[in-house]
Each structure stands twice: as structure tokens, then as C-alpha cells.
Design a protein that fits this description.
Shape: rod-shaped
Pfam families: CCDC92
Oligomer: single chain
Number of strands: 0
Low-confidence stretches: none
Order of helices and strands: H
Helix content: over 70%
Keywords: Coiled coil
Protein name: CCD92 protein
Length: 130
């Protein structure tokens, strides 16, 4: 009976050592897991921040893109208006050039008649003088 008691005490001590060892291992594992959780939370927070910044930049870029598109449309509309005005001015210029050409022709015609009349009168004056 004494031997069984000693053997039983050794078994109890052995089990207690195993339990203490397992508790120590479990504590180290829990500590390492907590550290890993903290590292992953920090990494997640960094990734979330990066994602938020990229979304903000994307929204800002969208706003800039829309503003540029609006400016482009406005500039295109202005360009079309200027081209329309330019076309009208060209038509007006062509019309005025036609009028100038007609006036020059008329002026040359009147100048020829004037010179012919001047020659006749000059010839008449000469005849009358003689």
C-alpha cells in the first residue's frame, strides 16, 4: 500500500508537472496570438486608411475630370460659336469684296467716260480756238 501511495504521488506530481508545462505553453501561445492579433489589427487599420485615401483621391479625380469635361464642353461650344461667327464674317467679307470689285469697275467705267468727254471737249476747244 505504501508503494502504491508513492507511485500514485509520483504520478500526481508528473501530471502536475505536465499540467504546469501545458499551462506555460498555453500562456506563451496566447501571448503570441495576442501579439499577432495586434499586428494584424494595425495592418488592417493601415490598409483601411490607404483604401480611404485612394477612394478620396479617386473622388477628387472624378470631380476634376467632371470639371475638365464641363470646361471642354464650354470651350467646344465657344469654338463652334466662333467658327460660326468666323463663317459669317467671311461671307460678309466676300460680299464686301464683291461690292468693292463692282465699285472699282464702275469707277473705271466712269473714269473712261470722263476721259472720253474730256478729250471731246478738249478737241472742241481746240477746234473753236482755231
Amino acid at each position: 500500500v505504501a508503494m502504491e501511495t508513492v507511485s500514485l504521488e509520483h504520478q500526481i506530481q508528473s501530471v502536475q508537472r505536465h499540467i504546469a508545462f501545458l499551462k506555460k505553453e498555453q500562456m506563451e501561445l496566447l501571448h503570441d496570438l495576442h501579439l499577432e492579433i495586434l499586428r494584424l489589427q494595425k495592418h488592417c487599420a493601415e490598409l483601411t486608411h490607404d483604401l480611404e485615401m485612394k477612394e478620396l483621391e479617386a473622388r477628387q479625380q472624378d470631380v476634376l475630370d467632371r470639371e475638365l469635361e464641363e470646361k471642354c464642353r464650354a470651350m467646344e461650344a465657344q469654338l463652334q460659336e466662333k467658327e460660326k461667327d468666323n463663317l459669317e464674317l467671311r461671307k460678309e467679307l466676300q460680299h464686301k469684296e464683291t461690292l468693292v470689285a463692282a465699285l472699282r469697275s464702275s469707277l473705271r467705267s466712269k473714269e473712261r467716260r470722263f476721259l472720253e468727254e474730256l478729250k471731246r471737249r478738249s478737241h472742241r476747244v481746240t477746234i473753236l480756238d482755231t
